[in-house]
Design goal:
homotetramer; 335 residues; alpha/beta; 8-stranded mixed β-sheet; 7-stranded mixed β-sheet; globular
Chain lengths: 335, 335, 335, 335
């Protein structure tokens, strides 16, 4: 058994981490923290009543290092790198769910803030197992991808050799409200989003540079990705609709099937995907259709599982030499 | 008072026609029909109890001609042209909410079926008041636009002079479930669409040729419009997100404001629109943003009002010489 | 034209007041205030863009008295009586949407706080027009009923002579989220209430004494009313299910029809009511069924219209000698 | 490994049976049938793509007997007893999810139809493990309880000794739409139930006699239970609010905690329950509150799990001598 800590357990991704790790046969949850502490797990998450209960501490790196070999950090950007730096120095492996180690230094500092742990940044591995599986097995620091980049990259990367980079890629994304976090805001008030839909941060979302950078690193090509996310009246789930031009008239489903033929957590559909069929799982579902040289790609993930917590546990499984799918949910919440 | 008939009163657009016409000071509802008849209005629409009640007839053109000067046809495609043909011959003005008179003959027959009323087809006026107001005042036959074309055309047309027609336009559309009709199907079952979203008929929806044709007729340019509609978990409302390339770096909000400066039922917003703010009204709300030569347009309408019934009454107002906004709803259902 | 003020315009009931008064032919909105001021109406309610715009002031009683003859107070309990007292002294009529003048002194102070305007309290008229119409025509101060009491009293009062007061009355109520106010809380976060339902304050809600007191004042009998409200995943609408014992085997629908035979805004249904059919209107819809001596009553209202703002305007119409239904909405938002 | 069949796999309870049995370490799904057959599992349930796939047969008792030792029947009332009778004769154990074996003969025939398998009816064990655990271990035929009776009985039974049977018990129940089945009807159309709530079959639902009979059999007392169910805008989950009078002033939470102290799948809460916290699990969550001699009980279950499929697998586990909680879900879908 490997002892693990969850730091930042109060939010939706914290709850999803708990739900998965409770059933994990090789990870033992030995430490749970929030920024304040002083509560128990079921104070934070009453749905775990009679299922799992323990004290929640005020997050402290030294205490974590005494109790755990690996820590999941579900913290806000910036706060995360402070913790990660200290934990890594104390020999604790880190899966960081924030943006702090996802980007190259320049890109990060342009879109977020000055980086405070440049030393580790260059060793962090981007936690998309389909792309970086071997490196993930050897690293001590995983930068868990954002939810939008996960769904976007898995849908776009198979087509990187065929996309015409002289033309922009447009991504119209839709996210359930859990993606906006547990904090109550005017956007997350029930009355604001029920019976509604709206775009936010059009063409300027922080996930846009993450998608562009990873596409470039993997394909060697710089694509002009333009990203417009929407909030939809659903709790969980996320859909990506991508529009682009191709250099040649390929068979997109054949390319997808070939690219992911050995992958357990990517499913290829021959009709448009929905968000309910993969809700509750680590699957990324993908469909694509070509019309002349125009390509439409369409993917979906559970934003707080494949887009956060279940992917984080996959990464931890790889880091610790366990089966990649140990405790990873694969049966959807549908209906 | 002008006597009007509603033919096809059982569906959602039939109900919206009733709701508007009940409050209209110059139209008198003198005849209501469905394909079967034999019921009353409140059998069909219990929400109108104690508000409006009358017998619903089995639709019959001769009876309509005796009772009404103008008929709203809320019938399925194909069924509509049979009725319209007969009514026009009997001297009844027609506002047809189906697709039967929306398209040029070739386009119609390619995407629907053989046309059975070619004589009137060439005289039909496309019922988008912002574009065809003067013609609407003189016609006896209005082809009421589809909901998606209404929102798409109003958002795209101001930019027609500036859009680079060498590149495709991509439209990612989202519609509330009322757009799928009152008939129960596996897609409209609550469990199917609640907590869900999915695309349907990607790149092959019948509204795609309607958008292309009207853009061409108004601008003289043939745009390659590619349309992907989605069903979202909301009852009413529809959003259009359009992505395209420009020939020059324009100020999109300024262009929108200038284009619609005299229009009462188009509102320009300086941030992304939502669907709730115009639900219950005849407004089309539009936002746009440019990034280099990339243009993002974003519009919303109430799909069964501006996308169907309130626009139909605007058209009828114009045909009869009434104020365009007589009885037209302008206060939204929000919150 | 009578000039009216809206004090507390930022919330849901403030918006509903605006929506009604904008279309009122005899009330002119001459002053709008919130506790902070310094914004415009469309800052608060973007859905009113291009419909109605004016400056919103920081609430000030003297300024109101200069500008308006009647004021609607959509303020929190306690804050309201301070304002009302001052306005009444300045000769301004008041429709108070808070609880401050709804209850007799003892009841109020037991369930709320010490009363600061006892002088006016005894002259306030409870604004349920079906019960107090004549008094409302002559008063300067209306205590607009709570949403739950409105639906409960209209359903229960016709049966007061027949209910066995030796047995408790149980009311199981359900409210849309707008009833919980515009402020974001953990209960109003979309994720908390979407796909959920829960009771709150069971058997101890503040509307319980309001129902008991009004039943007693009108019927002379003291009923043991027990109230359990629930929050449901809907924006607007409220349903009451009441369970009680009768002294004799009456025909409940006949009693309801007789009791409300001259009332325009109460509808009697012969099957269970829903909340959608009266959403957007001032109707209270009622159904009842008897089984032996057990009586089930079932009513619904739009919680922010009949349960607040449209009822407030009915009361203002009565106070000013206008037609009771002037500008009052009667066509539902369905579908 | 015990081979099991699922007969009636196309509906929501069929899907839930599949989801549980796929992960069961001791049951092997050896046969799946619907009334029509000729499809595969993922044709019926696309969310199982890449998870579980096999041919679905046209239901045939002899084929089942060759392939399986135990059959889950998720069939309509009446159809089920025909199958069960034949399967039992062929030595196949049966867990019947229909109403066919839930009631005593007289009660069944009064509320349903003539019974066609009286021989087995008297041996059927009612599948509420908390009440009939020992009998379930020895039987070949389990009548799986209805969803409403499960939640009602678990909430009421602990109080049976204390409830005053001279007064009625009123149950106000709320169910998610999955309870209305997968068939599209006007009630299950998204537009009908979204933003809505309504009672159906008030005081005459078929689950009312089931609750009364089981209360009588377990407590020896005949209670006058009056049941009013509602449909709410949620996919899964069910809540019971019960109102009654007591003979003495008990401590309801203490009684609940004592009654269920050894039960793994009943949770007692000290504040009102919701439906989301137990969605996705086999838990029944219960709260109760007393005011004088009035008792309010409040329970919730996942209607298609504890109210159907997971309880069915618990029963099958007991029948086969496995651990009662083998493969039974206990981690909720929240958030």
């Amino acid at each position: 058994m490997v002892n693990v800590a969850i730091v930042g357990a109060s939010g939706f991704t914290g709850l999803e981490l708990l739900k998965i790790l409770i059933t994990h046969s090789k990870f033992n949850i030995s430490y749970i923290a929030t920024s304040e502490g002083g509560v128990t797990v079921t104070n934070l998450h009453p749905s775990l009543t009679d299922v799992f209960e323990t004290q929640v501490h005020k997050a402290d790196a030294k205490a974590i290092a005494q109790k755990a070999d690996l820590a999941f950090l579900a913290l806000p950007h910036r706060a995360s790198m402070g913790f990660a730096k200290e934990l890594l120095a104390l020999g604790v492996k880190v899966v960081d769910l924030s943006a702090d180690y996802r980007l190259e230094l320049d890109t990060y500092e342009k879109h977020y803030c000055p980086h405070e742990d440049k030393a580790h940044l260059k060793d962090a591995v981007y936690g998309l197992p389909e792309l970086y599986r071997e490196a993930l097995k050897k690293t001590s620091l995983v930068a868990n991808p954002g939810c939008y980049p996960t769904a976007s990259l898995l849908a776009l990367l198979p087509f990187a050799p065929y996309i015409d980079e002289n033309f922009p890629i447009f991504i119209d994304a839709k996210s359930g409200v859990s993606g906006a976090g547990k904090k109550c805001t005017s956007n997350t008030h029930y009355v604001s989003i029920n019976e509604n839909i709206f775009a936010y941060n059009p063409l300027m979302h922080r996930h846009q540079p993450e998608i562009i950078e990873k596409l470039r690193l993997k394909s060697g090509k710089t694509f002009d990705v333009n990203f417009v996310p929407h909030l939809i009246p659903a709790t969980r789930g996320e859909m990506i609709d991508g529009y682009m031009l191709l250099k040649e008239e390929i068979d997109p489903l054949e390319i997808l099937r070939e690219f992911y033929k050995d992958e357990k957590f990517v499913r290829i559909f021959d009709k448009p995907v929905d968000i309910k069929s993969c809700a509750g799982t680590n699957f990324c579902d993908i469909f694509a259709k070509r019309e002349g040289k125009k390509l439409y790609v369409n993917s979906s993930v559970d934003n707080i599982l494949r887009g956060a917590s279940s992917q984080a546990v996959v990464n931890a499984n790889l880091m610790c030499g366990f089966d990649e799918d140990e405790a990873i949910p694969f049966i959807s919440y549908a209906p």
